[in-house]
Request: fold
Amino acid sequence: MRVNPEALSLKDKVVFINRVAKVVKGGKRFNFCALVVVGDGHGWVGIGKGKAAEVPAAIAKAVEQAKKHLIHVSIKDETIPHVVHGYFGGEHVLLKPAPVGSGVIAGGAVRAVVELAGARNIIAKMLGRGNPFNTVKATLDGLLQLKGPEEVARIRRGGLEQAG
Reply:
């Protein structure tokens, strides 16, 4: 589903900034890599990675990329509808719905993604090394697996029509 990023009131959050050095004849040249999450707090979320010689330029590039790759996730009553496991590389993220008033119980990169997606009550556990890039992608993988009640009903109806 395509959406116009200008139509949404998107907020962005910088998750991680990495300084990388290239050794050249005259010494070291430093560049920066920024990981940014954008979201509107109502189900739309995207991630982006930008690289540049200066931090603000890297962040700006990452925000633009994140806006181009927005996805919609199913958020019900400020939590997720069911338990999901997200995987990417060596990272494994467990996302569980939580009762109202629990808040976001998640660490680092996972917290940024679920908060900007719109989940206010959720429990998350990172299982892996904690690489922020892979953790964010694993969280997004888990959120993509979510199915809302309408989608589950549509799938079940489709299954009944095929059986009958």
In short: The chain has a mean pLDDT of 89. The helical segments are 55-68, 108-117, 132-144, 149-163.
